[in-house]
Amino acid sequence: MVLLDNLFPIDPDVAARIEALDLQFNKFGVDPYGIDKNDLIRFMSAFAWIYRYYFKVDVYGIDNVPGRGRAILVGNHSGGVAIDGAMVMGSMLLDAEPPRLPHAMLDKFIHQFPGASKLMSRTGQFTGNPDQAKRLLRAERLILAFPEGARGTAKLAKDADSLVEFGTGFMRLALETKSPIVPFGFVGGGDALPTIANLKGLGRLFGVPYIPVTKWIVLVPKPTRFQLLYGKPLTFEGSGHERDEVVCAMVDQVKERIRDLIRQGRQLREKEISEEDLVL
Amino acid sequence: MKVLVTGISGTLGRLTALKLLQHGYEVIGIDRRPWPDAPESVELFQADIRKRPAEDVFRTRRPDAAIHMATVTHLVHQSVDRMRVNLYGTRAFIHHCNRYGVKQAVFVGRHTFYGAAADSPLYHTEDEPPMSTHSFPELADLVAADLYAASALWRYPEIATSVLRIVYTLGPSKHGTLATFIRGPNVPLVMGFDPLFHFIHEDDAAEAIVTALGYKLHGIYNISGPTPVPLSTIVRAAGRRALPVPEIAFKLGLGRLGLPHLPSGAIDHLKYPIVVDSDAFRRATRYTHQYDERETINSFRAAR
After folding, report:
1. For residue B123, what pLDDT is reported?
2. DSSP string covering A127-155
3. Number of domains present in the structure of chain A
4. Is position B231 within any domain?
5. Which residues of A touch B294 (CB under 8 A)?
6. 8 Å CB contact between A77 and A152
7. Measured between beta carbons, which residues in chain B are less than 8 angstroms from residue A28?
8. Residue B98 domain flag
9. What DSSP line would sit under B23-42, residue for residue?
10. pLDDT the model gives residue B75
11. Chain B interface residues facing chain A, Cβ-Cβ under 8 Å?
């Protein structure tokens, strides 16, 4: 955090947006889940530069995300690491009105790393855990889930727009807590970080699922324009304790919606359609 | 109403005894350690809870209620004796409560029961199992004592038993796990980790114990004070300097080079949070803590 302070001054616009978040900070500026207002301002001031200038994100349908109350953002992974997650975070904190802080459900390995654990803890990003997610939704928070999980980030660049198998946890969560699902499609990750292979053995050595290898070997994304499309919220009826077949059918509906958003995002990217043609 | 407190000479034991007196209870205490300046109205017995003289206190004094605080929690006490005190002591306590007609029993336990891990959720509820005894075997006896005490709920349903899992206490006494850890001017932290710590002012903790007694609670309850605060923030607010040490050096250096005498399992407690949900207790008793996060830390900081 000290390093960030020196490189990036606090952005007053970002600070104002963080202040506007619907969170209860205690006397130390920490909310009940450990989100530190000042750390978040410092981090997002630096991240805003990456979000706006290094990358560029064309966001469509951001008003489909409820301004308050519980909801689950569900979308696709596109690219060797979760740049998509970071960009969704950016759009919610830097573009949405009012700004919202999504809580991503992280893979367990992330909190095992020094530095990453601290940063994620202070910005409200927890290891994916149904108890944790339920509690956050009942506290009317916004959850960010990638049902493809690490299988999704492991897609190679040539498959970036495809979808692999979806987990069903998010749907049971949505049913049990009566939370709307906001589907989103993310396009361009495969261009930012064109992965050609994943080193699983080496990854295991370092305690991560795999280490992606890009066209230019190193894991540095190139400046890229992304398309991020938020679809209309979907609500499903149920208790969350239905048989697998029932839940899987609902998951497939969400998956189809996301596939459609990705397709439209791709068409926008290739300039085959324009914003007016979108069906979100 | 006559209340017997085991472990009365400990910091929390004394505070609880004084609170009980304030609330108009008659107080009897058992402890191996003396309490030299105890109030005259407290009847003290210097005895080991596991031994005959302690049982005699139950038999002759016939308390209406009993609070069990005679557990060894200091991690520096790495002995078979600690395990025996914690487990046989709890067994003796429950046995005597049943045999001598105690109507209410309170077991004072710790929130560390739940354990700390990278994937543990914030705000543990009472139904969650203890998840980390494998990585921190030194805590296993306290976890077992907690579960053993809870078994009284079905073994002796006629006794109103409550098991309290209290977060770290902090306050002017400078006693307790957290206070001991941040006692010195420099506090070593595990570099790159900064867990939320849940704590409560020691007066609030004592008040909560007396409250549990007053409401004749039957069940397991988490007890916490203000919302949790990152460890590094606590260290700074207490006027100490945080010294981040890489985990490897921390492990190798435990007990040396100014690093604390801790078992290596304790490192998880410096990396990951143990935060509890105390709503059930607050709903059952309308309990509210009096000291907020800053006041609690300041009371520790200002104490001589």
Report:
1. 96
2. E--HHHHHHHHHTT-EEEE-TTHHHHHTS
3. 1
4. no
5. 27-28
6. yes
7. 229-230, 233, 237, 293-294
8. yes
9. TT-EEEEEESS--TT--TTS
10. 62
11. 118-123, 128, 190-196, 226-230, 233, 237, 246-247, 271-273, 292-294
E-state strands within chain B? 2-6, 26-31, 43-46, 65-68, 104-110, 160-166, 168-170, 186-190, 196-197, 199-201, 219-223, 229-230, 241-245
Which residue of A108, A117, A132 is in closest CB contact with B122? A132
Q: Whole-angstrom Cα distance, residue B184 to residue A2?
A: 24
State whether residue A207 sits within 8 Å of chain B by CB: no
pLDDT at B97: 97
Is B121 within 8 Å of A113 when comparing Cβ atoms?
no
Q: Do the beta carbons of residue A184 and residue A88 sit within 8 Å?
A: yes
Give the range of the structural domain holding residue B70, as residue numbers without chain letter: 2-170+200-226+275-291
Q: Look at chain B and report how many structural domains it folds into.
A: 1
Q: How far is B293 from chain A (nearest CA, A)?
A: 7
Q: What pLDDT, on a 0 to 100 scale, did the predictor assign at position A176?
A: 97
Taking CB atoms and an 8 Å limit, are A32 and B228 in contact across chains? yes
Its domain, for residue A74, covers 56-277
Domain at A265, CATH number: 3.40.1130
CB within 8 Å: B237 and A28: yes
Q: Does A134 touch chain B (CB under 8 A)?
A: no
For the whole model, what pTM was predicted?
0.93
Residues of A in contact with B193 (CB under 8 A): 114, 117-118
Segment A100-153, tens digit of pLDDT: 999 999 998 999 999 999 999 999 999 999 999 999 999 999 999 999 998 888
Interface test with B, best of A111, A113, A119, A134 (most B CBs within 10 A): A111
Q: What is the CATH number of the domain that holds B83?
A: 3.40.50.720
Q: From CA B187, how far away is CA B180, in angstroms rounded? A: 10
In a domain, B91, yes or no: yes
Residue A10 lies in a domain: no
Which segments in chain B show pLDDT lower than 50? none
Token pair 């595990």 is found at B190
A263 in a structural domain: yes
Residue A269 within a domain: yes
pLDDT tens, residue order, chain A (280 aa): 555 556 678 999 999 999 999 999 999 999 999 999 999 999 999 999 999 999 999 999 999 999 999 999 999 998 778 899 999 999 999 999 999 999 999 998 999 999 999 999 999 999 999 999 999 999 999 999 999 998 888 899 889 899 999 999 999 999 999 999 999 999 999 899 889 999 999 999 888 998 898 888 888 899 999 999 999 999 999 999 999 999 999 999 999 999 999 999 999 999 999 999 999 9
State whether A121 and B196 contact (CB < 8 Å): yes
* Angstrom distance (rounded) from CA B202 to CA B299: 10
Distance in angstroms (rounded) separating the CA atoms of residues A181 and A232: 9
